[in-house]
Amino acid sequence: MRALTWHGEKDVRVDDVPEPEIINPTDAIIEVTATAICGSDLHLYNGYMPGMREGDVLGHEPMGEVIEVGSDVETLEVGDRVVVPFTVSCGSCWFCENELYSLCDNSNPNAEIASEVMGHSPAGLLGFSHMLGGYAGGQAEYLRVPYADVGPIAIDSDLPDEQVLFLSDIFPTGYMAAENADIEETDTVAVWGCGPVGQFAIQSAWMLGADRVIAIDRIPERLEMARRHGNAETIHFEEDDVYDRLMAMTGNRGPDRCIDAVGTEAHGTGVTGVAEKAKQEARLEDDRPHVLRQAITCCRKGGTLSVPGVYIGRSDNLPFGSVMNKALTIKTGQTHVQRYLNPLLETIEDGEIDPSFVITHQVSLEDGPEMYETFNNKEDDCIKVVMTP
Ligand code: NAD
Ligand code: ZN
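^ thats the input. predicted complex w/ nicotinamide-adenine-dinucleotide below
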């Protein structure tokens, strides 16, 4: 089959690879009908994520039709149309039973590698590094879905792929980011990053009752989408001083809730003992704005900082003294996608939101390598790419 594969920093190719097969009786195989590129894929593309191997199949935002199920699969049948969460979760460990799906204890077969770097292991993730399970991803014609009874949600309605695909990741991620921000009715919410995750965080902040949303980025079409679609006020972080503007906009108190939907891209990242490049980055020698530092500095006393943005390894130089003395609450994590599938599908079916607003590019899988470059460089007004195998 055809699949997008990783061959090193900024080297993604379309290769012929073997089709996936059922390995465990709880697996299912789907024929992929739509699959997206995520900002998280860019961490792999840019070589920030340790544990990638040449030929790894990328992709963690897929949907498609079930074509085979393992003997223990009970909830899915051949022919079902499903969206597959990027978090691989067993459904029966302490964490899954407590709906902390992205912290599943059993779904990362390489837990010891993750523990070496992070001191613990989160769940396995589809199409990510071997440190997080080494599961082949969904930017391919076919995908093996592990624990098929736990993740995938069947779509019974005739909503098009474009409207339900983002249940796999970025809609739940934006929603959990807003939920983690503890939004109350009178709150001003500041969102750093107007990529796909930021856009869904903005939408979700309104859904959860925000009084005001301020979005921060430097890319004109993304700021424009935040204004037009997200009804947000915006700050261009290269043209304006973010701190000064936020203080002026909030009577000098600072936003009540801050969401970092940027992550590691905006500043150095470091992974101890793994990637030399990442270690160099960790020294923070560059002067790119550090979103976490900025959000901590801007957030009002007693406010909440929600961090859906992905950080890898050590992210040093945080003003933790400010966090403590300003009594900030910080909440973060990979999204517990399974928790949000049903309620968010309902919001789409009810017409409360049409997630397809974020799509700017619909192409074939064969165009994948070019699209990685375009999306990474934020060229051609690219905000979200959906591919059809
Ligand atoms: P993206 O790369 O498309 O968007 C990031 C945006 O941040 C860009 O528009 C960029 O211009 C902007 N940005 C960069 N520096 C900035 C700064 N200093 N201030 C304000 N904005 C800045 O990525 P995305 O798909 O929107 O994903 C965003 C983050 O969310 C990534 O780190 C991704 O890995 C992460 N993510 C997390 C989860 C999760 O489960 N927690 C799931 C999906 C994605
Ligand atoms: Zn993603």
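The pocket of nicotinamide-adenine-dinucleotide (ligand 1) is lined by residues 38-40, 42-43, 169-170, 173, 192-198, 216-219, 222, 237, 261-266, 289, 291, 308-310, 334-335 (CB under 6 Å).
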